[in-house]
Specification:
Layout (H helix, E strand, L loop, with lengths): L1 E4 L29 E2 L2 E2 L2 E3 H7 L3 E5 L4 E6 L2 E5 L5 E4 L2 E4 L5 E3 L2 E5 L2 H6 L21 H12 L9 E7 L4 H10 L8 E8 L2 E8 L4 E8 L8 H12 L2 H8 L9 E7 L15 E8 L10 E10 L4 E7 L24 H23 L2 E6 L6 E6 L3
Antiparallel strand pairs: 1-5, 2-3, 4-11, 5-6, 6-7, 7-8, 8-9, 10-11, 12-13, 13-14, 14-15, 16-17, 17-18, 18-19, 20-21
């Protein structure tokens, strides 16, 4: 049987790092008799190093192997042997995992060798551009400029999407398998919003040509960021909405936070025209506690026409009292006391520590404290029974 022992990661390393500077982690090393590349291998504590890297370490007491997992890697390592199993495949370690006393050690090159073995590469520096690479900032700017220089362009166009136009699948697969460049030049798909009308365009970035310009009938464009400002201004300018707020004891519309939602499709039963750019607005009251989500203005829904930039309908289901108790996200309870996230986290770590002790005891392992250099904290590592 084996039990997971996952300690809190105090200083997680950058996931993109291809090498781990163990000296910077203050992990004590030692020079064993094992050799690597013709010289002595420097060893570091296995569990502490792997957990700093973000991996989970388990000890299988029945099989006498370490089970190490991180993202898509599943590794089984038996001490004192150079053979390991990585995602079901046999690999050869340069230096085996060894015990010194009751503490397991790995070489400083262990993480690079295992996690950058070709089965789990965090990133690869491209030697040639992949045809599926997303558009660069320069390519996006070029695509937009090509549209602006075309006969179709009108002031007020809103560019809602600029993305890569993928080459045919057979060309993409041929590139992946043989490295042969695709025949299709770099192209971009563009979606333009002209008022309520959606237009799709195709751009050849190499020749700087507009290849197609196709209006899409019966389609609605996506909700854009500036639409949020439009609906907020619309409810603040509406006398009808102010009256609905007054019924609920709210006399300052500036304290109301509008959150827009799409209207959905009800086949005309809601009395809304399907060919309009409409948003339904549910609102919340900002009472100054930094958490307006805790103060919903229920039973009140507004409909805003984005083209007209005004409120066209109010759905009032009756007055429901707005919760007015301050409920800040910081944990302030309204009485001046504060239950900080740090306090909760400290308690959680204390409970987690006791659960770890129990799990280690079941494994027949002990947890010995190791100073980390901070006077207010201790850490530990797995020990095998002597």
């Amino acid at each position: 049987m084996f039990t997971a022992v996952k300690l809190p990661i105090k200083k997680p390393l950058a996931r993109l790092a291809l090498s781990v500077a163990f000296s910077a982690l203050c992990l004590p090393g030692w020079i064993p008799k094992a050799t690597a590349h013709g010289g002595h291998a420097e060893m570091v504590p296995l569990q502490a190093g792997l957990e700093e890297f973000g991996a989970t370490v388990k000890w299988d007491d029945y099989a006498n192997v370490f089970v190490i997992t991180r993202d898509g890697v599943y590794l089984k390592v038996k001490p004192d042997t150079k053979v390991a199993m990585l995602n079901g495949k046999r690999i050869e370690l340069t230096v085996p995992v060894v015990f010194k006393g009751n503490t397991a050690y790995m070489s400083k090159d262990f993480i690079n060798q295992v996690f950058q073995s070709g089965l789990d590469k965090t990133f690869v520096v491209e030697t040639r551009p992949n045809p599926l690479n997303p558009l660069s900032a320069d390519e996006i700017g070029r695509a937009v400029e090509i549209v602006k220089q075309s006969v179709h362009y009108k002031p007020g166009f809103r560019f809602t999407e600029v993305s890569i136009h993928e080459p045919p699948k057979d060309q993409t697969w041929n590139f992946a398998l043989t490295g042969q460049a695709v025949k299709q030049p770099r192209q971009a798909n563009i979606v333009v919003l002209d008022g309520k009308h959606v237009i799709e365009a195709l751009i050849d970035l190499d020749s700087r040509m507009l290849l197609s310009w196709q209006p899409v009938e019966g389609a609605h464009g996506m909700v854009l960021l500036d639409d949020f400002a439009t609906v907020q201004a619309a409810i603040e300018a509406s006398p009808e909405y102010a009256q609905a707020l007054a019924k609920r004891g709210i006399d300052d519309v500036k304290k109301v936070v509008a959150t827009p939602l799409t209207v959905g499709y009800f086949d005309g039963k809601d009395g809304l025209a399907q060919d309009k750019r409409l948003l339904k607005i549910v609102s919340y009251l900002n009472i100054g506690d930094g958490n307006y989500w805790s103060h919903p203005i229920e039973g009140l829904v507004a409909v805003v026409d984005l083209e007209q930039k005004k409120l066209i309908k109010i759905e009032d289901g009756g007055v429901i009292p707005v919760p007015m108790k301050p409920t800040p996200m910081t944990g302030e309870d309204g009485r001046g006391s504060r239950q900080t996230a740090g306090n909760h986290r400290a308690r959680g770590q204390e409970l987690h520590h006791h659960r770890q002790q129990h799990s280690l005891a079941e494994l027949g392992l002990s947890r010995a404290p190791r100073l980390t250099g901070r006077p207010d904290s201790v850490d530990g590592h797995l020990r095998r029974p002597g």
